[in-house]
Amino acid sequence: MCDSVDEVTRAVLAKNDGLAASLREALARRGVSVVNLLSSPGSGKTELLGRVLARAVERSLPVAALTADLATENDADRLARSGAPVKQLLTDGLCHLEARQLRGHVEGWLPAGTSLLFVENVGNLVCPASYDLGESLRVVLMAVTEGEDKPLKYPTAFGSAHLVVLTKTDLAGPAGFDEAAFEANVQRVNPGVEVLRSCARTGTGVDTLLGRVLAVRDGAPVHQPPLAPRPHTHTREGAEAGLVP
């Protein structure tokens, strides 16, 4: 029974990876880079993304955002205040996004000329970590209130990150957060990954994060995490799935 479950899981992930590879190539042909944002609920991901989008709009950068939740359009409403094009993706109970969902929502919606698409994944550090969305950059965020050992508890998420962002740093003192221990734990599961400090309330780290994302869009090399999705060759199914023009 366990072997059967494992085989089904591997087949599902393999199919997703094929779709993700096809979507990545299709979006690249349009000049679009995707940033996949992963975190637990309450990390401050939405607030920080809203600040980044607002800064991009101020600079007339062609950005857009998709935000995923099990229910409600609250986050889309919040992000739309930035002035950037935003679309809500409701998963109807699914705890993660898959490449097929992203493809379905991008088609016919993504504004012409967009070069940077932020995807705010479902608040969860378990399931989303296993699904490649065709992203150019995977960013894992964590608030100082979550504890220094979070990277050790969720090694797949942190071990697959191209970039780690520490949020709510203004609360580090009151929370008794040990930043040195956190940094050591991050490096233990993902040696060499950069850790950015941020605070959406004060704006700390907003420009730095936007700068890193733009650099990747413009061709800068990204960190290679130990658990990065492996490259896949095109299968017939994957090729047929590339429906984004």
Automatic annotation (TrEMBL):
Keywords: GTP-binding, Hydrolase, Metal-binding, Nickel, Nucleotide-binding, Zinc. The gene is hypB. GO terms for molecular function: GTP binding; GTPase activity; nickel cation binding; zinc ion binding. This is Hydrogenase accessory protein HypB. Belongs to the SIMIBI class G3E GTPase family. HypB/HupM subfamily. Residues 34-196 form the CobW/HypB/UreG nucleotide-binding domain. InterPro entries: CobW/HypB/UreG_nucleotide-bd, Hyd_mat_HypB, P-loop_NTPase. It comes from the Bacteria. It holds the Pfam family cobW. It comes from Streptomyces cahuitamycinicus. The keyword Metal-binding applies. GO terms for biological process: protein maturation. Transmembrane segments: none annotated. Residues 221-245 are annotated as: Disordered.
